[in-house]
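User: I'm new to structure prediction. If I give you an amino acid sequence, what do you actually give back? Let's try with this one:
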Amino acid sequence: MRGGIVVTGTDTGCGKTWFSWLLVKALRAKGVDAVGWKPMCCGDREDAYALEDASDGRLTIDEVNPIWYRTPIAPFPASELEGGALDLATLVALGQGLQERHEIVICEGVGGWEVPLTAKENFSDFARMLDWPIALVIGNRLGALNHTFLTVDAIERKGCRLQAAVLNQVIEEQDVAGVTNRGVIEQRLPGKVMGEVMHGAEVLESEILASLEATGRD
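Assistant: Good question. You get back a string of structure tokens that encode the predicted 3D arrangement of the chain. For your 218 residues, that looks like this:
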């Protein structure tokens, strides 16, 4: 694994930050110079601080999160309210600069795959410009199947590479949907499901890290 990975999700609140934090921590524990990057965030800055923590101080908070809108809505309307439209080319250049200085950059997205960033561009356009493989975090609950397959279809139509899918247990007690979702997703996405992040887990399962490393060498 070298370069960058874009972490996107099936929707807001699916666990992108938690997975990204776990992944950066796990890589750094193995001696890999991995850093977390949250190019844009809206509302509070807790996601960015989590990635700064995972990166062991290798980046300042403003390097982790160069664009911060205080309004807790999508970046495009937030920029309309607060001023300062996003320049995706500038953000891509920042990501490439981090990639040159560190072994792996884990880029956490904002919201879901098609969240509007500018009047004409969505997060999917930014991910396509970065041209890094995609890790999809699936909030494992009722509705996850529809959200997963819609997102995967959108990723493929954009011409991006889905490297891995990870199910995140968003509730402590799994219901029937949470138990059966993985099997259905594995049938539709053979070889892509890396594993599950259990509710409240503070260490990434070795199954997930090993699978990501294997796919990163493909």
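You can read the tokens as a compact description of the fold. Here is one thing that stands out. Residues 16-29 form the longest helix (14 residues).
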